[in-house]
Each structure stands twice: as structure tokens, then as C-alpha cells.
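Two folds, back to back.
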Amino acid sequence: MNPKNVSNTALALAKLRCGDGRLFATLVGAALGKQLLVAQDFANLCWALAVADQRQLSAAVVELCRRLAGQCWGGTVLENYLVSGKTTTSCTRCTCGC
């Protein structure tokens, strides 16, 4: 499953009010295993977990957030600074829109 499919599956399960903690944990685990989780997929996954009341997965969500922040704007600013000594206000590495 690609990251979009993972988040869309979680959204569908939350909207239908079905699925148990193990299923949501599996989806979060799949998201953790992906290289590039864009901001929209992350937001959808978080919304689904909130609606499904999956509080036990909050530590995994924090880890996803750290990874997203590192692969997007924060990582890009650091890389640009190290390479050129300049910073940027837009992300050039992903499609998150940050």
C-alpha cells in the first residue's frame, strides 16, 4: 500500500465506524514504514485515528509527525543553509505544500 492508500483506508474505516485497534495499529505501522508521507495523508490519518478514538496510537502519530517535519520544510531549510548559506520559505523536496 502506498501512503495515500493507507490514509484513505483509515479514513474509510473511521467514517464507517468499523475496525478495531489492531487494524488501525497495522495502518499506522504501514505509514511508519513509508518513506514519504505527505502532509495531506498525515492529516487524514490523524483525523481517522481521532474519530476512531485510537488514543493508544498517539506515540506512533508523534513519530510520524517528527518524520514529516524532518522530510519537509525543516530538513529542506537545513540542507539549503548547509549547501548555500541561504534559507528558503518553501519546500522543494515533497508535495506537502509547506
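---
second:
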Amino acid sequence: MVITVFKKGEVMRIQSLEQYVKDEQFLLDQEYEIISSLVKIRDEKGVSQKKLSEAVKISQPSLARLESKRVSPGIDTMIKILAPLGYTLTVVPIEESK
């Protein structure tokens, strides 16, 4: 049985709803970890949302929405936000990311 899912304006055909849910949960978990790390780094460095948002030229409310996980940031946005804090994104094998 093929299931049709609409996600971000795209039509996806999936074979297993269970696998789809598992894959989506993995993506959400990864996003949660990345954003949580950003917040922790910003706090440890004593940088306010306002100061960071000014440095990367985004609004403070936009940064707050990102940090509260109400929006999903693009890779370019995360790199732009992490750079002034002295960090970047790195690709590592899944086993190492746990």
C-alpha cells in the first residue's frame, strides 16, 4: 500500500507510515539538538538574543522564534547565527552524533 503525504508543498509517496513517522521523529530530534546547542552556546558566552540578532542582521523576534523551536531554520541561517559565536555546523556519522 502506498501512502501519499503532503509536506512543504511537495507530494511524497511512502511505503510505510511507521517508517515515515520514525524518519520524521529522527529529523525533529536532530533539529532539537542543534537548536538546543545554539541556545546553550549563546548563554555560555553571555550573548543576548538582541546582540546576536544585530550581529547576524536578523530581528530579535526571529531569533527568539528559532530558539523556541517554533520555526525550522535553514542551514544557511544556522551557519550565519553560529559564526559570531565561534561555531559552525559539521557533518559527522550518525553514531558519533549521539
